[in-house]
């Protein structure tokens, strides 16, 4: 049961949308997840008014390494750039994720900030399938119109193979996808905290906290428990940050949904990749963290994302 959330979208929403007039108008698709041994995220973002499409891939391998790959091309309707291409086999049901190119393999994800030149280049390839578990849903995210005013998300299974040089990683796991479009000004939000745990089609949650320009905070998300879904109306998070990098290390997030159900999500970030977004002399740090998660008797490994601004 989905309550008070939009669940109906047209097949055209699975493609890039007609852009608005704003310079930083963007259309972004994301797939992420894993099987507890290997975890990855992929993203393709189109900025048509700046004539570019960007593709990014991050892989936490079982041996502890973190592999990062990125590429850019001119504007196109094809949902592909750099190391990543998305092919829709059946709208809102089945996608193919194709990987190819070269990446940088770091001994640990934190080395992106602490030892950025200490990496080995690897050849990467792979193909995965994402099969959705539920119809797409959208809900309040806490974000302003300055970042992704339109969006939907879906949990599902993620399976396939990734090859890093001679290392072959077979994956049979679960994950989450999202599609968002509208203005995306990374520097317009003071901070956000974004996390969730995907267990099965009847049990998953997504929570977020977002800072506002006036010093306040908003929250959003969704709780699906025992097959009943409801949007989050309150969420407060206590975080323990890394003293050197400022990224997440541990957090406890307490949320309440519209049905009055309480959810407590605990996370321990075991490997965090500090990514950078620069524009006009401004610097945004997006910390993607491989995270052990616990909620409602369930445990799993997922990705937590902490964004903050820094002079630079």
Task: Give a quick rundown of the structure.
Helix content is about 0%, strand content about 65%. It is mainly beta.
Q: Can you describe what's shown?
A:
By secondary structure, this protein is mostly beta strands. The chain has a single domain, classed as AttH-like fold (Beta Barrel), CATH 2.40.370.10. Helices cover 1% and strands 64% of the residues. It has one helix and 18 strands. The strands form two sheets. It has an eight-stranded antiparallel β-barrel. The radius of gyration is 18 Å and the shape is globular. 41% of the residues are buried. The mean pLDDT is 93.
Number of discrete domains: 1
Q: Residue share in helices?
A: under 10%
Looking at the overall shape, the CATH architecture is Beta Barrel
Q: Determine the mean pLDDT.
A: 93
Structural class by helix and strand composition:
mainly beta
> What strand line-up does the widest sheet have?
1-2-3-4-7-8-9-10
Termini separation comes to 46 Å
Top CATH class: Mainly Beta
Number of strands: 18
Instruction: Work out the strand percent.
Output: over 45%
Uncertain regions: pLDDT < 50 for 5+ in a row?
none
Q: What Rg is obtained from the alpha carbons, in whole angstroms?
A: 18 Å
Q: What would CATH call the homologous superfamily?
A: AttH-like domain
Q: Give the H and E element order.
A: EEEEEEEHEEEEEEEEEEE
For the largest beta-sheet, the strand count, sense and barrel status come to: 8 strands, antiparallel, barrel
- The third-level CATH topology is AttH-like fold
Number of helices: 1
Q: What shape does the CA trace take?
A: globular
């Amino acid at each position: 049961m989905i309550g008070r959330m939009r669940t109906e979208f047209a097949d055209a929403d699975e493609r890039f949308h007609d852009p608005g007039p704003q310079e930083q108008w963007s259309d972004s698709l994301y797939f992420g997840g894993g099987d507890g041994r290997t975890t990855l995220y992929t993203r393709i973002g189109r900025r048509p008014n700046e004539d570019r499409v960007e593709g990014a891939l991050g892989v936490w391998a079982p041996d502890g390494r973190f592999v990062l790959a990125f590429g850019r091309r001119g504007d196109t309707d094809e949902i592909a750039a750099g190391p990543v291409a998305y092919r829709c086999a059946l709208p809102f049901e089945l996608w193919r994720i194709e990987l190819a190119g070269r990446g940088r393999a770091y001994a640990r994800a934190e080395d992106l900030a602490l030892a950025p030149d200490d990496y080995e280049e690897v050849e990467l390839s792979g193909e995965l399938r994402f099969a959705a578990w539920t119809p797409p849903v959208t809900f309040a995210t806490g974000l302003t119109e300055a970042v992704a005013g339109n969006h939907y998300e879906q949990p599902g299974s993620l399976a396939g193979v990734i090859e890093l040089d001679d290392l072959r990683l077979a994956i049979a796991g679960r994950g989450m996808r999202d599609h968002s479009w509208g203005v995306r000004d990374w520097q317009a939000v003071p901070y956000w905290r974004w996390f969730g745990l995907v267990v099965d089609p009847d049990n998953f949650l997504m929570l977020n906290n977002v800072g506002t320009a006036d010093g306040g905070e908003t929250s959003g998300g969704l709780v699906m428990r025992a097959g009943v879904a409801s949007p989050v109306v309150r969420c407060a998070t206590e975080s323990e940050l890394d003293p050197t990098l400022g990224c997440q290390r541990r957090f406890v997030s307490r949320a309440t949904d519209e049905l009055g159900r309480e959810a407590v999500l605990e996370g321990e970030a075991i490997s965090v990749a500090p990514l950078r977004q620069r524009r006009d002399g401004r610097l945004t740090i997006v910390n993607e963290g491989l995270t052990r998660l616990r909620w409602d008797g369930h445990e799993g490994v997922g990705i937590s994302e902490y964004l903050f601004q820094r002079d630079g």
